[in-house]
Design brief:
The structure is a homodimer. By secondary structure, chain A is an alpha/beta fold. Chain A is built from 11 helices and 13 strands. Chain A folds into 2 domains: about 120 residues, Aspartate Aminotransferase, domain 1 (Alpha-Beta Complex); about 250 residues, Type I PLP-dependent aspartate aminotransferase-like (Major domain) (Aspartate Aminotransferase, domain 2, 3-Layer(aba) Sandwich), CATH 3.40.640. In chain A, helix 4 links the parallel strand 3 and strand 4. In chain A, helix 2 packs across helix 7 and helix 3 runs parallel beside helix 4.
Amino acid sequence: MIYLDNAATTFPKPEAVYEKMDEVNRKYAVNAGRGSYKLAQEASSLISETKSLIRKHMHLDIDASVVFSPSITIALNQIINGLSYREGANIYISPYEHNAVARTLHGIEQRCKVNIRLLPTDPDSYEIDIEKTRYEFVKNKPDYIILNHVSNVTGYILPIRDIFKEGKKYGSINVLDSAQSFGLIDVNPVMDEVDIVAFAGHKCLYGPFGIGGFVCVNSIGLSSFIMGGTGSDSLNLDMPSDSVTKFEPASPNIVAIAGLNAALKVLDIEGNRVHEKELSDYLVNRLSNNKKVKMYLPGNPDNHIGIVSLIVEGYDSNDVGTILDEDFEICVRTGYHCAPYIHAILKDEKHKGTVRIGLSRFNTKEDVDKLVDALIEL
Amino acid sequence: MIYLDNAATTFPKPEAVYEKMDEVNRKYAVNAGRGSYKLAQEASSLISETKSLIRKHMHLDIDASVVFSPSITIALNQIINGLSYREGANIYISPYEHNAVARTLHGIEQRCKVNIRLLPTDPDSYEIDIEKTRYEFVKNKPDYIILNHVSNVTGYILPIRDIFKEGKKYGSINVLDSAQSFGLIDVNPVMDEVDIVAFAGHKCLYGPFGIGGFVCVNSIGLSSFIMGGTGSDSLNLDMPSDSVTKFEPASPNIVAIAGLNAALKVLDIEGNRVHEKELSDYLVNRLSNNKKVKMYLPGNPDNHIGIVSLIVEGYDSNDVGTILDEDFEICVRTGYHCAPYIHAILKDEKHKGTVRIGLSRFNTKEDVDKLVDALIEL
């Protein structure tokens, strides 16, 4: 079996992740941060250490507050619903946003009078048009910019630094969705002028399900969205004011955090980047002469990594997925990949979305060869 | 080490839980319900089977829709924020509610004009006064009743059937928080006239962190609270209308679900009930003549199980916890236990809350003896 759905979740994980999860499950899966006994304190230390590792891999110092959430989806809900919007606020997003952002913002749009604006995107290169973006910002000053770092549909690396820097000229609050980038390419919120970064544990970081979160690089007034027990200040009907605790109700998932801890300790971002870039270039190269296959690649190959979306002439994408699974034991994802806007630009609706190949550090050229051979045989 | 903080999270779990989690982690921790490949389908089957087991243990048929959430806290946020409240609606809760309910409702109170009403409670027996409750309902018709089944502070089993049945005379929507009951005593939403039951995986069910949820027994109009990708209907900016999918954005935590699955397969509710009742009666009995110790027990011993809260004269509760940990290697929880209202009735504030002993199926009379000996030695 060849697993190429790594953009959904990386699989497998490093052995250390499995071992650490099992160990913590058996030895100290207790309620961290709430009990004062030693076992609970050990669990708390593991959480602190894991947050330090997140900071380290993002080049951040102790001032950046790391919040753990059960998933990046929940983290993005906490961020987007936690911000307060003035009437008429302009919220810019790219057409590459995932439904964790798009649907959540759509919910905001229904309650508040805000303008959701899509960044101008070139229909041929599928890349954000920076010049037009500048012009848009002049016309409609950006209050918030929320951007996907790497597209989960096409592997396009968005020019976040250019866009966020431009936005900051107008005082925008910048939010980065690093679901498909953190662990794969350098994420540097300070250099990129990001205020809040949301991250996923189970994707490019090779951690487990059940843990994600966000990092507040700069102090942005964010309200609590999810309420509950915090093991502190219990008689207060409001969430505590502490900038982390107010976002972390409920028992922390110490087993998932332990898995993430192990993953972060063996994480080699530069190694992952080099390997996946090589592998995706190899895949693109091998398919580039195939007339039946159309790939959706950013105009500039430097802006591409890890994910290839394609269609096969004469086939619905779902059918390609089924054939790859049943006849070749190759797992890919097909359809719209929870990204509602981009398909109008890719124009892939005739094929009911794309066939998406998501690579990981554990994939090999042999995996890619088998996939390409299968696609040729179709 | 003797672990007596089982009301926070049960520890340890059955061996089968650890084994199943490790197995699924290694073999098919992929994105269930989104990929069409066989591996993803196996993950989906595991989810369906686990939901069937939840239904079975609640005596429900297939019509009851089971929603998985990352925790019961998030489930309660989804329920409480998903309901729509008319102006002036009366929401009854008991003073035993946890902050997952109390703080979330406080958030509602700040946005909507609703009345949060505490059920009348006898200051001597610490029990809900049913007669006074009936009278309250006559005066202020209940629109919603949200009740803790078993108090996480005192182990009091609330008379939910009486209260919910009385509420139904006025057409109330009844929500049960079964965090401390499901798995320990019989939870029968149909008999108890419950519309929605929230449940926790990692407490009395002996499942892992990272999985909880709610069951809609009757069809109550509930809106989505958390938005995100659902692997379906991706081009729609609204959450899908399906009564389960609309509440389950993001990748399901298949590893936690696998652990819950294993836990539910070995779950023996009646066995747990008998064991914990015997053990808590034994603890109460052994401490009842100790003049330094005051226990907060419901007036009727039949309404008590699994948890004992106490204070020790001359000590802050936190200090008792520290001494038990350091000198006797006994883990208990101290403080207010994320329950904001009940302490005004227990009048334990002088001691900064209670020392809480939370029992589990894995505790023994020897554990209780060692705790009691330690308390006597204080």
